[in-house]
Amino acid sequence: MSSASSSELSLFIEMLMAERGAASHTVSAYARDLSDFLTFLATKKTAAAAASADHVRAYLEVLAADGLAPTSRARKLSAIRQFFRFLLAEGVRTDDPTSAIDSPKRGRPLPKVLSLAEVETLIGTAKEACASAPDGSPRRRAYRLNALLETLYASGLRVSELVALPRNVLAVDDRVLTIKGKGARERLVPLNDVAREALSAYLGVMAQEPALKASP
After folding, report:
1. CATH number, domain at 148?
2. Three-class DSSP category at 59
3. Is the pLDDT score of 87 beyond 50?
4. 8 Å CB contact between 49 and 4
5. DSSP secondary structure letter of residue 110
6. What was the pLDDT predicted at 214?
7. How many domains does the chain have?
8. What's phi and psi for 18, nearest 5 deg?
9. Is residue 22 part of a domain?
10. Residue 148 is inside which H or E element, if any?
């Protein structure tokens, strides 16, 4: 790291503590991230005052090649942005080389999956609700939830597909569901006996409550 860059970093750290009242661990994190970046610039024989957007991109590429997570790269880029904005405000630079650089894309976290025991507990609770729910809307909702859970577990449908099913979906053959996906493409989804029984029980409850048939 050049002496000029080291001096600029010291001034930036002093600003963080004096003007922003940054906590000690925050100051330490900024110091580490920026020292690493300025050391990289030194290997390119460049100081912070002369660094370009290409230098910043090259640094981020090195971090990615080293396997640093997108969230960590985004944090380092945030520190670099603030450092260059400080240099711009101080008149050390006339531009901010990070202004045209997008933050690293953060991958979507994998969805959490229920264990078999959790699924069994969920379905078991829904079945118990069917047995204990009072007549009327509570009973209808309990049977609907049980039918949805059993069908979801048996078929692997997306939730959006499941809740959009028409009520007459089983009219032709109760062993399969005809699903319309994207582009109006149809596919057949088989049902097991448990799901068929749950759906039949729900439809039976609906048939016993004519006044509620119009509701989903």
Report:
1. 1.10.443.10
2. helix
3. yes
4. yes
5. P
6. 45
7. 2
8. -80, -50
9. yes
10. helix 137-155
